[in-house]
Amino acid sequence: MKSEPMALLCHLGALTRHLTPNITRSRLHSVSSPVPIQVRPYTQNLGRPVQIYRSRSTDPYLNLSIEHHLLQRSHPESTVLFLYTNRPSVVIGRNQNPWLEVNLRALRQGLPQSAAAAPTLVRRRSGGGTVFHDAGNANWSIICPPPAFDRDKHAEMVVRALRGLAGAAARGGKVRVNKRHDIVMDLDVEVGGVETFKVSGSAYKLTRTRSLHHGTCLLSSENLGRVGGLLRSPAEGFIKARGVESVRSPIRNVGLGGDEFADAVVGEFRKMYGDADGREVVVGEEEALANEEVVKGLRELTSPDWIFGQTPLFTFSTHPTEDDPRERPGITHRLPEEFRAQFTVRHGEIQAADLAGLEYHYSVDDASQDVVLSNALVEQRLYYIEDWRSALRQASPVPVDVEGVGEWLNYMF
Amino acid sequence: MATIARCLRVVRPTAYSAVLRNSASRTIGARPFSMTATNAVRKYTKEHEWIDLSGDMKTGVLGISEYAAKQLGDIVYVELPEEGKEVQAGDAIGAVESVKSAADINAPISCKITQINLVLEEKPGTINQVAEDDSHGGGWIAKVQITEEGLKDFEQLLDAKAYEEYTAEEGEH
């Protein structure tokens, strides 16, 4: 069972460069902790009215799959808390565009000033915008029945947890839930007045029978200053996307450790739901991977068809169009003077392509060659194109100069 | 429709409920431009989807109710169903996003999706404007072919009056 996801992920690695190449299902470290050793699988807990889980895994795909499994399988009347921390990841919302939200090339190169592996690209199932996760960021998730659903209720719960802790208080920061359902911290600044920073974002997934609210919390991330470049795409000025765009906010750590935060959130959760004596269940990787439904969800989340193919309709064009009349950014790459390109992409698949002005090695009828080349790109999946230079070469009926244009398109996508 | 209709914090649309109660026509959302056969019947699910059954009882049009659209807030994206898909009542067939929430749309009855409303791809807010309009520019989500099982499912649904009562009751919590 353990090797199957590994083999799957290695295969996927060949298809897309954007997943971390060395995802490992690490063996469980023995952790000395006060939590009693469990002999029952965590799934036996799903019928209880109040459930608390903590994940041992730092794999974002697995954690989201465990979360989804809890959403689907926990008792319909129950209330569930799930806490997890992910290795460095860029997490986009269900209806977002990775080419627009993320600098995919920079992502592959990894965080600046860091020798660590490149962050993982993840698309979650809930709505909302793009966030960065790492060891200094905590994720909390509450699942409850629809009548009890409220977008702020559990964010307020986390605020109570934060207010009770030394770190936040010591920094003199006041935490609260804002109108966008984010948790923000108001800091007094030297010059007088107050500056507000986001410390937590929220997102939701609503099914017929259950409601899920999950959010982040910046505790002590080392990467705050490093992620800006990853979350700015060079293609932004050229893409017009349907779907959901991120709203950027200045961010700050609250200055807390992972365990103290988690313990405080569990404490507030118990106060709310009266489960003072209930056990906390720790979910290990092996145990989660032994569950068929978790693995099914994992397969979905790791598939390029989900990560890239779930992207809403968008157009890309080098020049202003009726659909997108904005002035385009300057292009520093060397491109043929007459070069123009326009793509319509739906579900990650090129539905229409219109390239013009490419330079062919011998000229028969440039315009009609452009048409043939363009048509050859249609129905190709954008996320399967590893290198635009070879894609263009293959699409062209006649040898064509691919370096300039190919390089630039690689930079865009 | 994943319901947040019973969400306590949402601004209660009391004016809206009042309009419903006082409305002369009991059907929610008059359809002056409707292209449905005049003897089409409309019913609702408790999860706030609606479905129009055509006169010949073989086809239908579905969407989410005005009530649901109001509760959801500004819809910024609609994940449309897959054409050709065959579904059971209650299956998730798509989703809408509003206020960072991805909310499932569920099939009101067993049916086969034959056509989807591409207007919503460009203008998801159409649902907020005309959620129950099944004509060309309306907020309908899909056209469907109805099976035997679907007809049985249809009988279990709420008619316009029952739905109105149901939502009024919810609004009072």
Automatic annotation (TrEMBL), chain A:
<dbReference type="InterPro" id="IPR004143">
    <property type="entry name" value="BPL_LPL_catalytic"/>
</dbReference>
<dbReference type="GO" id="GO:0017118">
    <property type="term" value="F:lipoyltransferase activity"/>
</dbReference>
<dbReference type="GO" id="GO:0005739">
    <property type="term" value="C:mitochondrion"/>
</dbReference>
<dbReference type="InterPro" id="IPR045864">
    <property type="entry name" value="aa-tRNA-synth_II/BPL/LPL"/>
</dbReference>
<comment type="function">
    <text>Catalyzes both the ATP-dependent activation of exogenously supplied lipoate to lipoyl-AMP and the transfer of the activated lipoyl onto the lipoyl domains of lipoate-dependent enzymes.</text>
</comment>
<feature type="domain" description="BPL/LPL catalytic">
    <location>
        <begin position="75"/>
        <end position="277"/>
    </location>
</feature>
<dbReference type="GO" id="GO:0009249">
    <property type="term" value="P:protein lipoylation"/>
</dbReference>
<comment type="similarity">
    <text>Belongs to the LplA family.</text>
</comment>
<protein>
    <recommendedName>
        <fullName>Putative lipoate-protein ligase A</fullName>
    </recommendedName>
</protein>
<comment type="pathway">
    <text>Protein modification; protein lipoylation via exogenous pathway; protein N(6)-(lipoyl)lysine from lipoate: step 2/2.</text>
</comment>
<dbReference type="InterPro" id="IPR004562">
    <property type="entry name" value="LipoylTrfase_LipoateP_Ligase"/>
</dbReference>
<dbReference type="Pfam" id="PF21948">
    <property type="entry name" value="LplA-B_cat"/>
</dbReference>
TrEMBL record, chain B:
<feature type="modified residue" description="N6-lipoyllysine">
    <location>
        <position position="100"/>
    </location>
</feature>
<dbReference type="InterPro" id="IPR003016">
    <property type="entry name" value="2-oxoA_DH_lipoyl-BS"/>
</dbReference>
<dbReference type="InterPro" id="IPR000089">
    <property type="entry name" value="Biotin_lipoyl"/>
</dbReference>
<dbReference type="InterPro" id="IPR002930">
    <property type="entry name" value="GCV_H"/>
</dbReference>
<keyword id="KW-0450">Lipoyl</keyword>
<comment type="similarity">
    <text>Belongs to the GcvH family.</text>
</comment>
<keyword id="KW-0496">Mitochondrion</keyword>
<feature type="domain" description="Lipoyl-binding">
    <location>
        <begin position="59"/>
        <end position="145"/>
    </location>
</feature>
<protein>
    <recommendedName>
        <fullName>Glycine cleavage system H protein</fullName>
    </recommendedName>
</protein>
<dbReference type="GO" id="GO:0009249">
    <property type="term" value="P:protein lipoylation"/>
</dbReference>
<dbReference type="InterPro" id="IPR033753">
    <property type="entry name" value="GCV_H/Fam206"/>
</dbReference>
<dbReference type="GO" id="GO:0005739">
    <property type="term" value="C:mitochondrion"/>
</dbReference>
<comment type="subunit">
    <text>The glycine cleavage system is composed of four proteins: P, T, L and H.</text>
</comment>
<dbReference type="InterPro" id="IPR011053">
    <property type="entry name" value="Single_hybrid_motif"/>
</dbReference>
<dbReference type="GO" id="GO:0019464">
    <property type="term" value="P:glycine decarboxylation via glycine cleavage system"/>
</dbReference>
<dbReference type="GO" id="GO:0005960">
    <property type="term" value="C:glycine cleavage complex"/>
</dbReference>
<comment type="function">
    <text>The H protein shuttles the methylamine group of glycine from the P protein to the T protein.</text>
</comment>
<dbReference type="Pfam" id="PF01597">
    <property type="entry name" value="GCV_H"/>
</dbReference>
<dbReference type="InterPro" id="IPR017453">
    <property type="entry name" value="GCV_H_sub"/>
</dbReference>
<keyword id="KW-0809">Transit peptide</keyword>
